Amino acid sequence: MRTRHDDPEIPDDVTPRDLDKVARNELKTLNKENADEVARHLVMTARLIDEQPELAHEHAVSASRRAGRIAVVRETLAITAYRTGDFALALRELRTFRRISGSNEQLALMIDSERGLGRPEKALEVGRSVERGTLSVATQVGVAIAMSGARLDLGQPEAALAELEIPQLDPDVAYSYSPELFDAYAEVLEELGHDEESALWRDRAARADLALNGDDDTIEVIALEDDDDTADVDDEEDVDGTVPGQ
Q1: Do 68 and 174 have their domain in common?
Q2: Are 198 and 117 found together in one domain?
Q3: Which helix (H) or strand (E) holds 174?
Q4: Which of 79, 103, 127 is the last residue of a domain?
């Protein structure tokens, strides 16, 4: 029996067309009335996730109760669960998303969810379970950062540094993932006591961020093309399509 859940209010000016077109296409298997309501909840989730993650999560729960078999809905619920610190729910929903979609593009979040549950060894196992070359470049970088964090959790800073020494660690080019990657590298260098080098990479992270915003022309900015998901479908036992109320 599902726990009672009251749908949070949605302002009248929020429309289904405010949702990203790709996400809207996933809702076409629903009847129009239901699809529209799910879309509006997803729009509210995106609007609230940074400043009011708990309320964003309530909207994601509402969407999931209406469309539990839609991949983008389960993915959204996983993200909001992670942002509110419910790592067990996040991991469950990420597995369901992967099973429905056949995509491993949320692998980094799965690794970090295992870390959130205090299981860094399991996090490393999850990260090693997928061939990196099957992932988009941005996801490969996210996985490297998450794996590095798991190494730090285990008190292995040298191994954490090695996880980040990937081709994308290029200070002369700014991709969307560069600031986070450079910051992660700086953090590990600081952990190792390399303060000067750490400061250098923190400066590079700041410059990359400025370049991405058009405020620094000393770094080449390259836009990422969307990669097709080519991951294998997860073969774990099915997860119940209902979501407990919060």
Answers
A1: no
A2: yes
A3: strand 173-174
A4: 103
Tens digit of each residue's pLDDT (9 = 90 or more) over 207-245: 999 988 875 555 566 665 433 433 333 333 333 332 223
4 burial type by CB count under 10 A (0-12 exposed, 13-18 middle, 19+ buried): exposed
Length of the chain: 246
| Cβ(82)–Cβ(90) below 8 Å | yes
What is the domain extent for residue 31?
11-103
Q: Strand, coil or helix: what is 173?
A: strand
pLDDT at residue 5, rounded to an integer: 73
pLDDT tens, 149-188? 999 999 999 999 999 999 999 998 889 999 999 999 999 9
Cβ atoms within 10 Å of 186's Cβ, excluding its own: 22
Residues 88, 117, single domain; the answer is no
198 with 99, same domain: the answer is: no
pTM metric for this prediction: 0.84
Report the C-alpha gap between 142 and 4 in whole angstroms. 36
Q: Which is more confidently placed, 227 or 16?
A: 16
> What is the rounded distance in angstroms from the CA atom of residue 207 to the CA atom of residue 219?
8
